[in-house]
Amino acid sequence: MMQPLAHPLTCFKAYDIRGRLDEDLTEANTYRIGRAFADVIGAKRVVIGRDIRPSSEGLARALAEGLVAAGVEVLDLGLSGTEEMYFAVSHLSADGGVCVTASHNPMDYNGLKMVQAGSAPIGADTGMAAIKALAESGAFAPDVSGGMVLDVSGTRAAYVDTVLSFVSTSPLKPLKILVNAGNGAAGPTFDAIADALAARGVPWQFIRMHHTPDGGFPNGIPNPMLPENQPPTREAMLREGADLAVAWDGDFDRCFFFDHEGNFVPGEYLVGLLAEVFLAKSPGAKIVHDPRTIWCTQHVVSRAGGTTIMSKVGHSNIKRVLRDTGAIYGGEMSAHHYFRDFFCCDSGMIPWLLISELLGRRGTTLKALIEERAAAFPSSGEVNFRVKDAGSIVSKVEQMYGPKALSRDDTDGLSLTFEDWRLNLRSSGTEPLLRLNIEAKGSRDRVDQMMAELRGFIEAG
């Protein structure tokens, strides 16, 4: 038994573990978390992986030491994406898995993403709180001999076969695709997928950008959602004359798209597009979406004969809904896409394969597929506000706008629906922010008008 920590662990968040290095997250604390993880889920075999950050190797080593002390057989993927960990947990029949990654967070951050057997999420009510409490108390079961670390990086070939099973690779039309790995973990995994596509005769040409993994991130933190990070990808694809571009975050569980004119494609429209792809293959299927922007997705799914299900934001929530309902696909506007046949987990590789297949088969452009939807259901994108008292602001918005609404929904935050526009206002589960989304029916002016009005109301406090 170890001594209790003097202070509570602040790195445990709503969906995973994330914190500032040497303050919220240390190698010593990571050892404790690994030890607690093993005890709480009763693990005998655990998959671990890590991203390219300089701190990740040391944290992964400390994590493995904690697991080994509990007698666990640690199956080490080495440098890998979070989704490769998800895959390996189920493929190798492990009891759980952990990926050391801070994804798109600043350089002085790192974190852990954890799952249990079957690649099932671990949420606040399914073990996260117990792992935190045990790590803090140090009241671990006695050490067990026999733990060891094994190299399982060779499972990547089976992972590649699985993600490629989502598309029909023959016959497909030629495409020129620019890919930006952001110097994160995506490069080697993408190369394995590209080699497999070439071996199957797929006539896609790839232009690689910022491809070499480099934990110093010489081209900036890989977060393609930030507007200031998008111009280099846009400029490169226009220079190369690519048909589309794909960019990933640091652990590549999210992917982002640019059309052939260099326009960044908002995530909510990709949800509707991927829903349509799955409904064409599985008529009547269920589609899960988050409550931030819903009208485009609901319209597309209804038109295609499917059923929509709303879930709270966050990977553990949406994965649970997929598992409980049998939905074939779920998507968030933040570019997380979840697939029933990928253990109900998210992937940043499956979406670009599906979209590229779709473009080749239809002989059209991504811009053509998106612009009609964006015109019919314009949205603000997510706008973040730093406020002193998020709860008070939400209450004031509810009091001001609630009586005029046609309906309200409390699935996640406050959603109010009016005749021609809709809002969702919610507190972030991972950051001290209030997040606002506005959408309208056919009027960009209406979106801009209501955003200006709500912005003034929120900033006034």
Structure write-up:
With 461 residues, the protein is of the alpha/beta class. It has four domains: 17-155, Alpha-D-Glucose-1,6-Bisphosphate, subunit A, domain 3 (Alpha-D-Glucose-1,6-Bisphosphate, Chain A, domain 3), CATH 3.40.120.10; 173-264, Alpha-D-Glucose-1,6-Bisphosphate, subunit A, domain 3 (Alpha-D-Glucose-1,6-Bisphosphate, Chain A, domain 3); 265-336, Alpha-D-Glucose-1,6-Bisphosphate, Chain A, domain 3; 383-459, Alpha-D-phosphohexomutase, C-terminal domain (TATA-Binding Protein, 2-Layer Sandwich). It has helices at 27-41, 56-69, 82-91, 124-137, 156-164, 186-199, 231-240, 267-281, 295-303, 315-325, 350-362, 366-376, 390-401, 444-459, and strands at 17-20, 45-50, 73-79, 96-100, 109-116, 148-151, 175-180, 204-209, 244-248, 255-258, 286-289, 307-310, 329-331, 337-339, 345-346, 383-385, 407-409, 414-417, 421-427, 434-440. Strands 1-5-4-2-3-6 form a six-stranded mixed sheet, sandwiched between helices. Strand 2 (45-50), helix 2 (56-69) and strand 3 (73-79) form a beta-alpha-beta unit. Helix 1 packs across helix 2 and helix 8 packs parallel to helix 9. The longest helix has 16 residues, at 444-459. 51% of the residues are buried. The mean pLDDT is 95.
Q: What's the CATH class of the largest domain, please?
A: Alpha Beta
What is the count of helical runs? Answer: 14
Multimerization state: single chain
Biggest sheet strand order reads 1-5-4-2-3-6
Overall spatial form: globular
Which regions contain 5 or more consecutive residues with pLDDT less than 50?
none
Secondary-structure arrangement, i.e. CATH architecture of the largest domain: 3-Layer(aba) Sandwich
What's the mean pLDDT score? 95
The CATH homologous superfamily of the largest domain is termed Alpha-D-Glucose-1,6-Bisphosphate, subunit A, domain 3
Strand content range: 15-25%
Count the strands?
A: 20
| Rg (CA only) | 22 Å
